[in-house]
Amino acid sequence: MAVHPADQRTQPRIASPRGVGVWLLLTAAVGAVASMLLMRERIELWRDTDYTTACDINPWVSCGLVMDSWQASTFGFPNIFLGVVGFPLAMLVAVTILGRVQLPRWYWLGLQAGVTFALAFCIWLWSQAVYSIGVLCPYCMVVWAAVIPMFVVVTAGNIANGAIPAGPGLRRISADWWWVIIVLIYLVVAASIIVAFPNAFIG
């Protein structure tokens, strides 16, 4: 992904190919671990319907109750499969980036499409867990926490490096405020959870 000379002075280290690769590798690794743990719990539930998952903590925090909902199989198969396949694939992409391979623009746009879908799906799952199912899945929340910076950093990198056309203002915002965006999203998610599940925190 070539950097426009005029943008080099505004390009943060995080938006460089190496910076994007490191963040993508770390966040994908976190998401992959959480997905594998969810898969293990799902398999145990298939084997024994009376199995109590490791994250069944109370009526408001339970992986098992979430897995029993229809939202847990949005596309006709367990959502877990998306993470088990998608995150290792993202790790492979990260390794390719860190290997200093010159990647075409369509490759970066494909990565952007992937992380955008991941964030959109996580937003929908968050809304369903908080406002419809009424139960939180800790492993799922780890996946949300990984996907948020994954999306923001990849997007900031694509904007800063020209894969996504943008004006100087948007380039400057992506260069200087990417971390603020991550923090704000975390705060919004945390606040919605605290407001929706006060009993889970104050008893």
Written overview of the protein:
The chain has 203 residues and is mainly α. The chain has a single domain, classed as VKOR domain (de novo design (two linked rop proteins)), CATH 1.20.1440.130. It contains 8 helices and no strands. Helix 1 packs antiparallel against helix 5 and helix 5 crosses helix 6 (168-176). It is globular, with a radius of gyration of 18 Å. 33% of the residues are buried. Mean pLDDT is 90; it is low at 1-10.
What's the rounded overall pLDDT mean?
Answer: 90
Q: Do you know the CATH topology?
A: de novo design (two linked rop proteins)
**Main pleated-sheet profile:** none
* Overall helicity: 55-70%
Count of β-strands: 0
* Series of secondary-structure elements, N-terminal to C-terminal: HHHHHHHH
* CATH class term: Mainly Alpha
From the helix content, strand content and strand pairing, which structural class follows? mainly alpha
Q: Provide the CATH architecture.
A: Up-down Bundle
Task: Tell me the domain tally.
Answer: 1
Number of helices: 8
C-alpha end-to-end distance: 51 Å
